[in-house]
Design goal:
It is built from 16 helices and no strands. By secondary structure, it is mainly α. Helix 11 packs antiparallel against helix 16. About 3% of the residues have low confidence.
């Protein structure tokens, strides 16, 4: 249920047109919401370790659904920021880490592949939502679109949460591909790093830097690709299709990324995905053809989708399962921080220069940084294995 995030770009032009707001102001709501989501994710990851995903997802589904429905009433900037930043931001913090951490606890073998299947739902929703929401906006209005999306999100998340259990040991079962129940319980609850211990390691901060860069290079195009396409003379329907194609490609990327990581190793796959982020530089080209712009964002989606699907598995490999939810929440915070900064800077740079060239150049620099740090992280992991 990431449509409130992946589809935000289709609301930028309707909001700026109705209220006369700048793109920086509207994108700033997304940025601050992502920032709040990052802090919320740390807290929700810890709550998931204690109480399980059913509790966390029920609360967060209620917050996100309520925030989206309240967008129907927005008439001023502070109302936009309250609904989207506070309610949706806090709620979104519990819709990612708890689910990924739960999958990591239920699967030892095929962990990355199963995480990929989980995230495929995110891509499917991201593919369908921009098209449907664009239709709702141009058939009715943006308020109705927010209201209907909020109702659907609330019902599906809260209902689905009731069927999720955190740990197989609570149900007298063992994880798929795990050892005996006793051994697995020891691995899950005793071995590994605490959050405090993880924060004192170099590999945590290198991993966090990579994820920050990935979030910056992913969220910036996701939010601004529709306005960018419209500025280049592409129709609203085609622009929404480009965003849908990007999100749809993420579905394939997460499934393939998980399968490949299980086959060739998670760090090697991680490096390959990081290298694909360099495709953000292709958006600097003055392309006004929908299919070619769509091709560029597909490459980017394979890089970002591959990195996202491996966050949970790589966290488990680097730090163990003792405080997996809390550590993963901190790692995901780096993603949301990068995404928040990138989307705001994208709107600000456009307002100042009238172009997105500057922000995509920054994305290219950060993509190269992510690739370099991924290679460094692999070397650190190899040296630890030898020791």
């Amino acid at each position: 249920m990431t449509s409130p995030r992946t589809s935000f770009g289709v609301f930028i032009n309707p909001l700026t047109a109705e209220f006369g707001w700048s793109r920086a102001l509207v994108a700033g709501a997304y940025s601050l919401s992502a920032f709040i989501q990052g802090f919320s994710g740390i807290m929700m990851g810890s709550l998931n370790d204690r109480f399980g995903p059913r509790f966390v997802l029920t609360i967060c589904g209620t917050l996100v659904g309520s925030g989206l429905m309240l967008m129907y009433l927005v008439d001023s900037a502070w109302q936009l920021y309250f609904s989207y930043v506070v309610l949706i931001g806090i709620g979104m913090g519990g819709l990612f880490a708890p689910q990924m951490s739960t999958v990591a606890r239920w699967f030892v073998k095929r962990r990355n592949a199963m995480t990929g299947l989980l995230m495929a739902g995110r891509g499917v929703g991201g593919f369908i939502a921009p098209i449907v929401i664009t239709w709702l906006i141009y058939t009715y209005d943006w308020r109705t679109a927010f209201l209907l999306v909020g109702i659907v999100v609330f019902v599906l998340i809260v209902l689905g949460a009731q069927f999720i259990r955190r740990d197989p040991s609570k149900m007298g079962q063992t994880p798929y591909g795990g050892e005996s129940e006793t051994r697995q319980k020891a691995q899950s609850n005793v071995l590994g790093f605490s959050l405090k211990q993880a924060l004192h390691t170099r590999k945590f901060w290198i991993f966090g830097l990579i994820i920050f860069c990935a979030g910056f290079c992913t969220n910036t195009p996701t939010v601004h690709i529709v306005p960018l396409a419209l500025d280049r003379g592409i129709s609203p329907v085609a622009a929404a299709m480009i965003l849908s194609v990007m999100n749809g490609a993420t579905t394939i990327a997460t499934i393939m990324g998980g399968l490949i990581a299980d086959r060739i190793g998670i760090l090697r796959s991680f490096i390959i995905s990081a290298s694909l982020l360099l495709s953000t530089l292709l958006l600097l080209l003055p392309v006004a053809t929908p299919w070619l712009l769509g091709f560029f964002v597909i490459i980017l989606a394979f890089g970002s989708g591959g990195i996202a699907v491996m966050e949970s598995g790589l966290t488990a490999e680097l730090f163990g399962m003792k405080s997996h939810g809390a550590i993963l929440g901190c790692i995901i915070f780096h993603w949301t921080l990068g995404g928040a900064l990138g989307t705001f800077l994208g709107g600000l740079i456009f307002d100042i220069t009238g172009s997105y060239q500057g922000i995509f150049l920054i994305c290219g620099i950060l993509a190269f940084t992510a690739f370099t740090m991924a290679v460094t992280l692999n070397r650190i992991r190899k040296s630890e294995a030898v020791a």
